[in-house]
Structures are given as C-alpha cells and as structure tokens.
Design a protein that fits this description.
Blueprint (H helix, E strand, L loop, with lengths): L18 H10 L14 E2 L11 H7 L10 H13 L4 E5 L2 H12 L5 E4 L4 H9 L3 E4 L20 H11 L4 E7 L12 H13 L4 E4 L3 H11 L8 H10 L3 E5 L10 E5 L2 H14 L10 H13 L3 H20 L12 E5 H4 L9 H13 L1 E2 L1 E3 L1 H4 L11 E5 L7 H16 L7 E5 L10 E4 L26 H4 L6
Parallel strand pairs: 1-10, 3-4, 3-5, 5-6, 6-7
Antiparallel strand pairs: 2-8, 7-8, 9-12, 11-12, 13-14
Bound molecules: pyridoxal-5'-phosphate.
The site of pyridoxal-5'-phosphate has 15 residues, from α4 and α5.
C-alpha cells in the first residue's frame, strides 16, 4: 500500500441518488455520461481533468495573484517554475490544453502536412486537422492491443517513423508528437530509450518534435519503476530529461498540475514562440496571462512543483492500481498493464454479445452509472470514429481517478458497483445513436437503449478486504524506495 502524503482539510459533500433517480437521470442525459448533472453523480470518475484537490500551498499562492494585464508577477513566477521543473525556454500560457494545441497547430501545420503521433488525443487531432493537417499514427502495434502487457505502449514505432518521413519528404511533415502516458492506449508510458531515439531521428531528419507532456509526472514514475537503469534516479531528474529531449510541449495542466483550469505551450524555438505569441493575443489573451487569471497562474506554478513530488505521484498511481486489482481479481476484463490515471474496462470482452455498432462502451458507462451513481467515460467508437470512417479500434470505458480527491472506501464502492454490472452483463442491451454533433461527437451525442436495462440490484458481491498484490513489472513499484521531499 502506498500511503497518502496528505490529510483532508476541506470537504465537498456528495450523495448517492436513488436507483429510480439514476434511471431518470441517464434517460434525460441520452445515455451519455457527459450530459449527466454532477448532482446526480456519487463518485465522479469521468475525468482527471480539473478535478484534483488543490493543496494548501496552491490556495495560499492564489492570494498572491497579480492580475496586471501585462508584465504580471504571476506570469514570471509561473515561467520560473516551468523552467525549474522542465527547462524549456519559452512559456505561453493558455486557458487549457486545447488552447496550446490550437496555437501549436496554427504555427507548425501547413495544409496537407502530416502530424505523426502515437495514436491520438481527441482535441489534439481536431486542432491539427482544422489547420489542414493529416493525423498519422506511428504508435507501436502493442498500443492498440488491450491484452498486450508491453511495459511502454506509449512508444513510437521508429521504423515506421523513419519510413514515413523519408517517403513523404521533410517538407510534408508538420511535426512529430509523442504523448506521455498515452491516454488512448490506457494511460501507457513511453520509455526514455524510445524518447531518446525519437529525438535523435527527428534531429537527423530535421523535423520538429513536440511532446504532449500532459501526465509526464506519472510517465516519469513508470520510467523509474520499469526501465532498466532508471530506478536510482529521482522523479525531478527524469522529468527534466524527458523535457530536454523535445523542442517543446503542450500541457493540459488540469491533469498532473493539480489546477482546475490552465495549460501552456512551452518551446525552445524562438520563431515558434514569437508566432505563438502573435496568435495568443487573438485567441486567448495577452502573452503574460494567456487565458488565465493571475491567481490561476500562481496555483499552476505551485502545481508544477507538486507534479515533481514523488510521494504525491506514487500515491496517485497506487490508487489506480488498487482499483484495478479489485476488478482484476474478480475477473473483470481491463487493459493491462494498468496505466497512469485510470482503469480502462475492455467493453468488447465485458459485453461480448453487443456488436461495436451498438456502442458497447457507451452502454457500459451508462450501466455503471445506473448501477451505483458512478460516472465514467466511453473511449471507443463514439470518441474514436471520425467523419464516418470505419473504426476498428479499442472499445473502452475509462474509470478515471481524480488526484487527491477520493479515499479507498470510494474505490471499494466503485469496484463493488462494477462487479454488480459484471454479474448482470449478459442482460445488458446495446444502444442506438439518435443525435450526433458534427465534431467531437462523444461530448454531446444522444442514445437510446435497444432493450430495457436489468435492475443491477442483485445481491452485492461481498468481498473481504483484498489482499491484492501487483503483478509483474508493477511489482517494482513497491520496491522503489520512498524518497523524502
Ligand atoms: C486533456 C488533454 C488534452 C486537452 O487539454 P484540455 O485541458 O482538456 O483542453 C490534450 N492532451 C492530453 C493528453 C490530454 O489528456
């Protein structure tokens, strides 16, 4: 067990709606968990985005926010924190990650150029495409295989990367993007070895290389645990090396920087920074605040430092593993190895009788809500299919753990809820799509069930306090000595 390096000072009341209320709520929401009201949710595992608890240091720092339009002290403190932890030269704050993605795509992508990436992230891909780019996957094959236990599914396929750049020619490549703790593969890290090789190749072939460094803290922890020769290095040291291997990065700071809102573009390229600052004044705000208030920048500066705190990151990853262990030991199909920020249920195996055209992951997320007021998110054909292209990819439900927000009791309750759904799985029907917005359809699409849902009120599965011990590569987590702050 990884002990929490914090105690609770401020609480937010939550309550569990009745089964009848939950049934009404999911119908009103069109069987889309994004459209539920938070008051109708008991444990909210929709996302780790903006849902972390802030620390007392962050709250105290917020009092110091300098709301000056230009030249804000808070901007300079944020810039100092970013340079200390990551080391990039330029910082352009944005309201959140997609603001930075927008700027980077507008600066680097010419119409018809390719963006080469390990799988994709929804908003990252949309911004590249809106700028005229063509998103192209260069992930290793294991990234798309939920049953592969490859320790670094966030790696880029180096052969494929080289072939594409050589075949298409340097001028047709906008940039290479590598995402930390690759969300679409289940929160899976890249290795330092792979990152170094991508750096070398992009240097050799003269292609810009940017990280989506969101969740790089957890990626750094996985490197320390799993990569030969890295166990003795500190988390800040590994983070610093990760950052040193790319020309820059976009961050959604709503994840491992512990802020409710914020993000930024960081770069070492003076020309990219200049052009991004020209655009940020049009779309976000003056370059000294982007889309953020002074107090937001203060909370972010402190959050960046906490993201490099090993006990904090190790406890968080430990919570994710704890929930995964409870489900695994009951035979629930999940993506392995367990990733950074979430447990991903494999809906293709969980609801094997529901064909993918009937949205099994969308339905599974709705069923888990009805069964226990637990909110999760579809990461499958609804999020992944694009402009009616055929889609053969993963069909997952993401139970995402907010940082520092829930206790072990909450996680036990979540596991029990999922197990009740698992017990009734054969009675769960598929869904029909009844409304589809033109872009990012998963946010607002609406569905109707093809048959009534089961009750989920069978005897709750009784379990003793689990004795789950992590397996394989993850076992090293327990062996990594705790470091002092
Ligand atoms: C959340 C996220 C984004 C988008 O950031 P927002 O802050 O939600 O706009 C981009 N990339 C990754 C990997 C993310 O997790």
């Amino acid at each position: 067990m990884v002990l929490p390096p914090y105690k609770i000072k401020v609480v937010e009341p939550i309550h569990l709606p009745s089964p009848a209320q939950r049934r009404r709520a999911i119908i009103t929401a069109g069987f889309n968990t994004f459209l539920l009201r938070s008051d109708d949710v008991y444990v909210d595992l929709l996302t780790d985005s903006g849902t972390s608890a802030v620390s007392q240091e962050q709250r105290a720092a917020m009092e110091l926010g300098d709301e000056s339009y230009a030249g804000s002290r808070s901007f300079y403190r944020l810039e100092t924190a970013m340079r200390e932890v990551y080391g990039w030269q330029h910082l352009i704050p944005t309201h959140q990650g997609r603001g930075a993605e927008h700027l980077l795509s507008r600066v680097l992508v010419e119409p018809g150029q390719l963006v080469l990436s390990n799988l994709y992230f929804t908003t990252s891909r949309v911004h590249a495409e809106l700028a005229g780019g063509v998103w192209t996957d260069v992930s290793i094959p294991e990234a798309g295989d939920p049953e592969s236990r490859h320790p670094f599914k966030g790696n880029i396929d180096l052969g494929k990367l080289r072939d594409l750049i050589v075949r298409e020619g340097r001028e047709r490549i906008a940039f290479v993007r590598q995402e930390a703790c690759l969300n679409m593969a289940g929160g899976q890290p890249f290795s330092l070895e792979n990152l170094r090789a991508v750096r070398a190749l992009t240097r050799e072939l003269d292609v810009p290389f940017y990280l989506d460094a969101t969740r790089s803290s957890e990626n750094a922890l996985f490197i320390a645990e799993r990569e030969p020769g890295q166990a003795e290095r500190s988390l800040p040291e590994i983070l610093r090396e990760i950052a040193s291997l790319a020309d820059g990065a976009v961050f959604s700071s709503k994840k491992d920087h512990f802020v409710p809102i914020g993000g930024f573009l960081a770069t070492n390229d003076d020309a990219v920074a200049r052009r991004a600052r020209e655009l940020v004044v049009v779309y976000e705000g003056f370059p000294h605040y982007g889309g953020l208030a002074g107090h937001d920048m203060e909370a972010l500066a402190q959050g960046i430092r906490e993201a490099a705190d090993e006990p904090t990151v190790a406890h968080y990853v430990g919570q994710v593993r704890y929930l995964a262990g409870l489900l695994q030991e009951a035979g629930v199909p999940i993506v392995e190895p367990v990733g950074a920020h979430a447990v991903f249920l494999d809906a293709k195996r969980f609801l094997s009788h529901v064909p993918q055209e009937q949205f099994p992951a969308q339905m599974l997320a709705a069923a888990i809500y009805v069964a226990g007021g637990v909110r999760s998110m579809e990461r499958g054909i609804v999020s992944g299919q694009h402009d009616h292209e055929p889609y053969e990819g993963l069909e997952l439900v993401r139970l995402t753990i907010p940082r520092r927000a829930y206790s072990r009791e909450h996680l036990d309750y979540v596991a029990e809820t999922v197990l009740r759904v698992f017990a009734a799985r054969r009675e769960i029907p598929g869904l029909a799509l009844v409304y589809e917005p033109p872009t990012l359809r998963f946010f607002q699409a609406r569905f109707e069930p093809l048959a009534p849902l089961p009750s989920f009120e069978g005897a709750p599965v009784r379990r003793e306090t689990p004795q789950w011990a992590p397996l394989g590569a993850e076992a090293q987590a327990g062996r990594r000595p705790a470091r002092s702050r």
